[in-house]
From TrEMBL, chain B:
This is Ion-translocating oxidoreductase complex subunit D. NCBIfam families: rnfD. The chain crosses the membrane at residues 34-60, 96-114, 126-148, 209-234, 241-261, 267-287, 299-317. GO terms for biological process: electron transport chain; transmembrane transport. The modification FMN phosphoryl threonine is found at T192. GO terms for cellular component: plasma membrane. InterPro entries: NqrB/RnfD, RnfD_bac. Keywords: Cell inner membrane, Cell membrane, Electron transport, Flavoprotein, FMN, Membrane, Phosphoprotein, Translocase, Transmembrane, Transmembrane helix, Transport. Belongs to the NqrB/RnfD family. It is a multi-pass membrane protein. Part of a membrane-bound complex that couples electron transfer with translocation of ions across the membrane. It is an enzyme of class 7 (translocase).
C-alpha cells in the first residue's frame, strides 16, 4: 500500500508561506475556487468571513491529510480527502451560525460549498499528501492568506463602488449613487478581470526589468 | 539588387482608396448634424455631455496605447466616433461624471481589451451604454423635456452632479419650467414616446417622431435627420446600406405582424420604426464594420434578427427600449452567422442537389 514514491523533504522556509500569497496566489495566479470569489465578494465583511472560513478548512484538512498521508489507500484518496474537508466545513458551518446568524444568512449556501472549492482539494492532493505536517500547515496558512487577500481585494472595490461603504461605514455621505452592477454578479467578473489585468501588467514590468538588468 | 522581375503575392491585388482614418473622418462628419440638432434641442447640457464623453474616450484610448506600448490610434478618430455615438444615446441630462465612466468603459472594456480597432467583438459605444445601464438604471432612464426655455443659459440640474453623487430629481425642475412658461400641466414632460406608449398607452404623432419634436436620448430624436446623415455615408460608399435596411425591415415586419394580430395592444409599425433609438442604432451602430457579418446572406440574417429582437424586447421586455441589447446580441451572433453562411469557393465541388 505504501508504495507512494518518497519525495525528498526540503526544509520549511519563508518561501513556503509566501508562495501562496504572491507567486502561486490561488485566485490571481492559479484562478482556483472562482465560485466564492465571484459570489460572496459583494461586501468586505462577506469576503473576509469567507476568506477566514476557507483558510480554516484548508488548514484543518491539510494538517489531517498530511498526518494520514501514509495510511490513505491510493485508490480511494479523493473520497477520503472530501470526507476530511467536509468534516471541517461542517465545523465552520456551525461555528459561523453560532457567532453571527446575520453573516450566516449573508453567505448562504456558499459556506457548505467550501467542500467543493477546488483549491482545497487541489492543495490536499498536490501538497499535503506529499509533504510533512509542518510544511503542509505553513503552506496552507500561506494559501489561505493569499485567498483571503484576493477576496478582500475584490470585496473592497465592490463594496466601495456598489454601496459607497467600507466595512459598513458610509464613505461618501447620503447622496452617494450606488453602482448597482457592482453588487450584482457581473460586477464580480469586472473587478476580478481588472485585478488580473493589473497583476499581469506588474508581472510584465517585473520580467522586463529583470531582463534589462541581466543584459547589463 | 536581387529584386525579382515579377513580385508574387496573394490577393487582393487592387485596393480601394479609403483608409480607416478616411472612413472614420467621414462618419464623424455624418454625425455632426445630429450633434448640432441635439445641442439645439437640449441646450448646453447636451453639448457638455458630448464633449465630456468624447474627451473620456480619447483620454482612455491614449492611456491604453501608452500602457500597451502600441501606436497611439486616437488620430484615426475611431475613438471620437465611439464617444460621439455613446453620448448621442445617453439622456441629455445624464450626469457628466457618469458619462465619463461610460466613455472609459466603452474604450477600455469594449475596444482596447479585445486588441484595439478591428478586433472588438461588440460595438464599443454600446458596451459603454450597457454598463451604465446596469450600473445607474435610474439616471439613464431620467429624461428631460426637449426645447425647454433657457436651455442655452442653464444646465439641466442633473448634469452637474458631483462625481459619485446621486443626480437631482428632475420633477421640481420640470414643474418650474412649466409654471414659468405659463403652460398647462405636462406641456414640458420628460416622458419619451416609447415610455409614453409602454406605460400609458399614448401614441406619439409619426410626424413629430420624424422631425424630432419629441424627447429622448440626445441624438436619437429626429428619425429624418439620422436617415439623411446615413444617406450621406451610403452615397460616399462608406457604409453597407443593406445592414440598416434589413434591420429596419426586420423591425417593420415584426411590428406589422403584431399590429395585424391585435391593433389595440400593439403600436403601429411606423411608430416602431421612428421612435426611440432604432433609427440611430440601425444606421450608425448595427452597421459597424467590425461587429457585423461580411457574407451577403449573413448580413440579411443579422439585420433581420436585430430588427426582430428590438421589437420583441420593446414589446415583451421590462424596458421600453431594446435596440441596444438587440444589436449586442447581433454582434455576439456574428461569428456564428458568418460560419454558417460561407459562400461556396469558386471551383470547389458543388453540393448534391444544389443546381446553383
Amino acid at each position: 500500500m505504501s508504495s507512494r514514491p518518497r519525495i525528498k523533504e526540503t526544509p520549511v522556509t519563508m518561501d513556503t508561506f509566501l508562495k501562496g500569497i504572491w507567486e502561486e496566489n490561488p485566485v490571481f495566479v492559479m484562478l482556483l475556487g472562482m465560485c466564492p470569489v465571484l459570489a460572496v465578494t459583494n461586501s468586505t465583511i462577506n469576503a473576509l468571513a469567507m476568506g477566514i472560513a476557507t483558510t480554516f478548512v484548508l488548514l484543518g484538512s491539510s494538517a489531517l491529510v498530511s498526518l494520514l498521508r501514509r495510511g490513505i489507500p491510493k485508490q480511494v484518496r479523493i473520497a477520503t480527502y472530501i470526507i476530511i474537508i467536509a468534516t471541517f466545513v461542517t465545523i465552520v458551518d456551525y461555528l459561523i451560525q453560532a457567532i453571527s446568524l446575520e453573516l450566516y444568512n449573508a453567505l448562504g449556501a456558499f459556506i457548505q460549498l467550501i467542500v467543493v472549492n477546488c483549491m482545497i482539494l487541489g492543495r490536499a492532493e498536490s501538497y499535503a499528501s506529499r509533504n510533512n505536517v509542518t510544511k503542509s500547515v505553513v503552506s496552507a496558512l500561506g494559501m489561505g492568506a493569499g485567498f483571503t487577500i484576493a477576496l478582500l481585494c475584490l470585496g473592497t472595490v465592490r463594496e466601495i463602488l456598489g454601496a459607497g461603504t467600507l466595512l459598513g461605514f458610509p464613505l461618501f455621505g447620503a447622496d452617494f449613487e450606488p453602482w448597482v452592477v457592482m453588487i450584482l454578479p457581473p460586477g464580480g467578473f469586472f473587478v476580478l478581470g481588472s485585478w488580473l489585468l493589473i497583476f499581469a501588467l506588474l508581472k510584465q514590468r517585473k520580467t522586463k526589468m529583470e531582463e534589462l538588468t541581466r543584459a547589463h | 539588387m536581387n529584386q525579382p522581375l515579377v513580385e508574387i503575392r496573394t490577393s487582393p491585388h487592387i485596393h480601394s482608396s479609403p483608409t480607416v482614418a478616411q472612413i472614420m473622418r467621414n462618419v464623424t462628419y455624418a454625425l455632426m448634424p445630429l450633434v448640432a440638432f441635439a445641442v439645439f434641442q437640449f441646450g448646453i447640457s447636451a453639448l457638455a455631455l458630448i464633449v465630456t464623453v468624447v474627451t473620456a474616450t480619447l483620454l482612455t484610448e491614449s492611456l491604453f496605447a501608452k500602457l500597451s506600448g502600441r501606436e497611439n490610434t486616437i488620430f484615426d478618430s475611431s475613438a471620437a466616433i465611439t464617444g460621439l455615438l455613446l453620448a448621442l444615446t445617453l439622456p441629455p441630462g445624464f450626469p457628466l461624471w457618469m458619462g465619463a465612466v461610460a466613455g472609459f468603459i466603452a474604450i477600455a472594456l469594449g475596444k482596447t481589451l479585445f486588441g484595439g480597432i478591428g478586433f472588438n467583438l461588440f460595438n464599443p459605444a454600446l458596451i459603454g451604454r450597457a454598463f451604465v445601464q446596469a450600473a445607474f438604471p435610474v439616471a439613464i432612464t431620467t429624461w428631460s423635456p426637449a426645447f425647454a426655455p433657457g436651455r442655452f443659459v442653464e444646465f439641466i440640474p442633473s448634469t452637474l452632479t458631483m462625481p459619485l453623487m446621486r443626480p437631482a430629481d428632475l420633477t421640481p425642475w420640470i414643474e418650474k419650467i412649466n409654471a414659468s412658461a405659463g403652460n398647462a400641466v405636462d406641456a414640458f414632460s420628460g416622458a419619451t414616446p416609447l415610455a409614453a406608449w409602454k406605460f400609458d398607452g399614448i401614441a406619439t404623432d409619426s410626424m413629430d417622431l420624424l422631425t424630432g419634436m419629441v424627447t429622448g436620448s440626445s441624438g436619437e430624436t429626429s428619425a429624418l435627420l439620422i436617415l439623411l446623415c446615413g444617406g450621406y455615408l451610403v452615397l460616399r460608399k462608406m457604409m453597407n446600406w443593406r445592414i440598416p435596411a434589413t434591420v429596419l425591415a426586420g423591425a417593420f415586419i415584426t411590428a406589422l405582424l403584431l399590429f395585424l394580430f391585435d391593433s389595440e395592444a400593439y403600436p403601429d409599425p411606423l411608430f416602431v420604426l421612428f421612435s426611440g433609438g432604432l433609427m440611430l442604432g440601425a444606421i450608425f451602430m448595427a452597421s459597424d464594420m467590425v461587429g457585423s457579418p461580411v457574407t451577403p446572406l449573413g448580413v440579411l440574417i443579422y439585420g433581420l434578427l436585430i430588427g426582430f429582437f428590438t421589437v420583441i424586447i420593446r414589446t415583451f421586455g421590462g424596458l421600453p427600449e431594446g435596440v441596444m441589447y438587440a444589436i449586442l446580441l447581433g454582434n455576439a451572433l456574428t461569428p456564428l452567422i458568418e460560419s454558417v453562411t460561407q459562400p461556396r469557393v469558386y471551383g470547389d465541388k458543388q453540393k448534391k442537389g444544389n443546381s446553383a
